[in-house]
Write a structure and sequence with these properties.
The strands form 2 sheets. The protein has a 5-stranded mixed beta sheet with strand order 3-7-6-5-4. The chain has a two-stranded antiparallel ribbon with strand order 1-2. Helices cover 34% and strands 28% of the residues. The two termini are 21 Å apart. The protein is globular and about 35 Å long. The chain has helices at residues 17-23, 36-59, 67-76, 80-89, and strands at 4-5, 8-9, 63-65, 95-98, 110-117, 123-133, 136-147. A hairpin with a 2-residue loop joins strand 1 and strand 2 (8-9).
């Protein structure tokens, strides 16, 4: 169940630790308390802004696929257009995770997981990140793109 409904909190009681952990947006051990609803609304707004940035990058053609993503697409019979359609049809970011790759360039790097359907209704899983060049966000790099199971 979603903790929010049209910008308002559904219940007067704060979410449990499990609910906060599922959202994946708070530090471990963060105690739910006063202002939790405001925090959830802030997280939802931030994710919405990020999704808009991802969609704009895809619409402008500023995206690239890793070798892994390309192999997964070939294995599942997906095209670049299928993946782009799924991203553009997305209504929310499924999850934001901190990268654990030892080869990452920046100290803190986030990966965005999106699960959505293309125009034919096929559920597609994508994982990607923003890439900065010369201190400016230049394109969205897809690390993984495959059929969702």
């Amino acid at each position: 169940s979603r903790p929010m409904l049209r910008g308002k909190c559904r219940s007067a009681s704060p979410p449990s630790q499990e609910q906060l952990a599922r959202l994946g947006k708070f530090r471990r051990g963060a105690a739910p308390g006063a202002g939790w609803c405001v925090k959830l609304l802030f997280v939802a707004a931030r994710n919405s802004e990020t999704l808009v940035r991802i969609k704009r990058a895809v619409l402008a053609g500023r995206y690239a696929f890793s070798e892994k993503a390309t192999l997964e697409m070939e294995r599942d019979g997906l095209t670049e257009l299928d993946v782009a359609e799924a991203i553009l049809n997305a209504v929310a970011i499924f999850k934001r995770v901190r990268s654990t790759s030892p080869g990452r360039v920046r100290r803190r790097e986030y990966l965005y997981i999106i699960q959505s359907t293309n125009l034919e209704g096929l559920l597609i899983y994508t994982k990607g990140k923003f890439v900065k060049e010369a201190g400016r966000e230049s394109y969205y790099f897809l690390i993984s793109s495959k059929r969702s199971v």
